Amino acid sequence: MNRSYFCPHCHGLLNPGTKVIFVIANPLNRGLLLLSPELGDYAVVLAESFPIEASSHYDFSCPICHHDLTSPANANFVEILCRQPDGTQVRVDFSRVAGEHATFVCGPQGIRAFGEHAPRYEPVNFFGEGDLTRRSDG
Ligand SMILES: [Zn+2]
After folding, report:
1. What is the tally of helices (H) and strands (E) in the chain?
2. Average model confidence (pLDDT) across the chain
């Protein structure tokens, strides 16, 4: 059993196949972005017509409900939910800055960081003091 990723708003499944699907947009373009479900794997599949400029921000939204997926913890991040192979649910926050490889996984076991750029951020911010249960309703 692999990881299943869910939209935190509609709880729709974001990886019905082998990739995690998002809609991304900037003021000029809009398209589908496919990411690996493996934590720390930053290989990206993108429509060729959609130019990615390093260091620019892209707006990620749910392909099902179209809700903005910007993390409430940090505006540089996207936040989704993940059900792990052992059945536990965690929050996954990853950078939405093109070329920046930083992912934080926040769950019952604490926070794990992935990606060579994760040290740019303070992991503690992704758990917010006194806020450990804010997504426990999912
Ligand atoms: Zn959704």
Report:
1. 0, 9
2. 86
* Ligand 1 mean position, distance from CA 64 (Å): 5
What mean pLDDT comes out for the span 110-114? 92
Q: Report how far ligand 1's centroid is from the alpha carbon of 67 (Å).
A: 6
Per residue in 3-41, pLDDT tens?
A: 999 999 999 999 999 999 999 998 888 889 999 999 889
pTM given for the model: 0.85
Long-range contacts of 97-100 (CB under 8 A, 24+ apart): 97/55, 97/56, 97/57, 98/52, 98/53, 98/54, 98/55, 98/56, 98/57, 98/58, 99/52, 99/54, 99/55, 100/55, 100/76
Instruction: Measure 91 CA to ligand 1 centroid, in angstroms.
Output: 15
- C-alpha of residue 38 to centroid of ligand 1, in Å: 21
CA 7 / ligand 1 centre spacing (Å): 5
